[in-house]
Design a protein that fits this description.
Number of domains: 3
Number of strands: 16
CATH class of the largest domain: Alpha Beta
Shape: globular
CATH architecture of the largest domain: 3-Layer(aba) Sandwich
Number of helices: 15
CATH topology of the largest domain: Rossmann fold
Radius of gyration: 23 Å
Structural class: alpha/beta
Strand content: 5-15%
Low-confidence stretches: 411-470
Distance between the termini: 26 Å
Strand order of the largest sheet: 3-4-2-5-6-1-7
Largest sheet: 7 strands, parallel
């Protein structure tokens, strides 16, 4: 099958061929015809399978087919992403594939000045790519008009929920036209994603190209079990002994990313750190240096798990395992992209063995362990006793973590109590938008499942879930 058989017009096909693309990936071949039929879509595919082109190509085609009713462009398509890096990447794809079309696009996100964005929006755009927070900043200042949006796309929806953007998403949905086409793309499916899909999508078509939460087939996964104190030395040894020229390393905290980058630089290994406390300019420069090869190691928090697109990235290292199992899939999905091969290595200490167990249950695969003299330890994981089913359902570790996060976030009706890296933080007035400052938070009750609702509002009866398993 070729792109020419999917119903795309000549200008788009020309742009694709100039980029060297002739045949669609499985998710693209499934998604493009369905989206062109103007149906709502719930799509799941592992990272690196071409999801971005799966929705940008048919979006460009539909917008190009429809005649403009006004001389000045207005926002007809809104694409929401969880991170700045991913937003920039998506807008670049829109610009690349639509370069022979008379459509205008732009991207807006935080961390940079808002005035240049306001100036661009005043000129008019057809396609707007945005992060939720900065989009609501523009809404509050009335510098963007979303009243004529025809298409809404949520990219990496699971990551947006993990980062605490659910309230922001609901605010955006409340101001959009009711009649529109909705596309929800996610690398993993969870109960939260299904609940969002229930409220957002209208008779959606479910598209999956692989078993949900599955890792890429071209990724060689391995792990080392060792003492926490030996992790830095082992990482440096692997880079030096293997002569690795490009490796993406994940840590759980911003401070940990900085310290590890400094350690590697002290060993003569060029490195840079990227996380939410870095300015947007510093993050952009670090990513550009890493892509061009002047920086050998990029140390990142999970903010980079969805925004780095390097076709031939050979190595990903989990210096620390994520505490949410699905994030492991996103992290290692930065390598082995577009059918290429890659290597994903995890450094696991004793306190992370429970995380490892959760990850292996999620991917339904036992990750091979490598023993290296002088580094690996003799720690052995002992599986906990299985709960007695007669005592009722027991929450999994990931469910408990999400419940604790939702309980913290539910106490605030405004912006979620999470940083841009998804780390918990104390709410303060600086995190509020101008029109929210000094507002008293709405009093809430909690139901038996821990979900909050206003005292003046009656609890809604539980609605039946659609069956997405068919």
């Amino acid at each position: 099958m070729s792109f020419s058989s999917l119903g795309l017009s000549a200008p788009i096909l020309k742009a694709l061929y100039e980029e060297g693309y002739e045949n669609p990936t499985p998710i693209q071949s499934k998604a493009i015809p369905v989206i062109l039929q103007k149906k709502d879509v719930l799509a799941g595919a592992q990272t690196g399978t071409g999801k971005t082109a799966g929705f940008t190509l048919p979006l460009l085609e539909l917008l190009n087919r429809a005649k403009k009713t006004e001389a000045k462009p207005h926002v007809r398509a809104l694409i929401l992403t969880p991170t700045r890096e991913l937003a920039a990447q998506v807008e670049q794809s829109v610009d690349t594939y639509g370069k022979y079309l008379s459509l205008k696009s732009t991207v807006i996100f935080g961390g940079v000045g808002i005035n240049p964005q306001i100036a661009t929006l005043k000129k008019g755009v057809d396609i707007l790519v945005a992060t939720p927070g900065r989009l609501l900043d523009h809404v509050g200042q009335k510098t963007v008009d979303l009243s004529k949006v025809e298409f809404l796309i949520l990219d990496e929806a699971d990551r947006m929920l993990d980062m605490g953007f659910i309230n922001d998403i609901k605010k955006v949905l409340s101001i959009l036209p009711k009649k529109r086409q909705n596309l929800l793309f996610s690398a993993t499916f969870s109960d939260e994603i299904k609940a969002l899909a229930d409220s957002l999508l209208n008779s959606p078509v479910l598209l999956e190209v692989a078993r949900r939460n599955e890792t890429g087939g071209g990724i060689d996964q391995a792990l080392y079990i060792l003492d926490k104190e030996k992790k830095r030395e082992l990482l440096a040894h692997l880079i030096e002994d293997g002569k690795w020229t490009q490796v993406l390393v994940f840590t759980r905290t911003k401070h940990g990313a900085n310290k590890l980058s400094e350690f590697l630089a002290g060993r003569g290994i060029t490195s840079a750190a990227i996380h939410g406390n870095k300015s947007q300019g510093a993050r952009t420069k670090a990513l550009a240096d890493f892509k061009e090869g002047s920086v050998r190691v990029l140390v990142a928090t999970d903010i980079a798990a969805r925004g780095i697109d390097i076709d031939l990235l050979p190595h990903v290292v989990n210096f620390e395992l994520p505490n949410i199992s699905e994030d492991y899939v996103h992290r290692i999905g930065r390598t082995g992209r577009a059918g290429n091969e890659g290597s994903a290595i995890s450094l696991v200490c004793g306190e992370e063995l429970e995380y490892l167990n959760g990850i292996q249950r999620l991917i339904k695969k036992e990750i091979k362990q490598i023993f290296l003299e002088g580094f690996t330890s003799k720690q052995v994981y002992v599986a906990p006793e299985k709960p007695n089913k007669s005592k009722g359902k027991t929450q999994s570790r990931d469910q408990k973590i999400r419940a604790e996060r939702d309980a913290r976030n539910g106490a605030h009706s405004g912006k979620q109590n999470a940083s841009k890296d998804g780390q918990a933080k104390k709410p303060d007035n600086r995190d509020k938008r101008p029109w929210e400052k000094d507002k008293k938070s709405e009093s809430t009750n909690r139901d038996e499942k821990g979900k909050s609702y206003p005292k003046t509002q009656k609890k809604n009866s539980q609605t039946s879930k659609r069956n997405y398993e068919k």
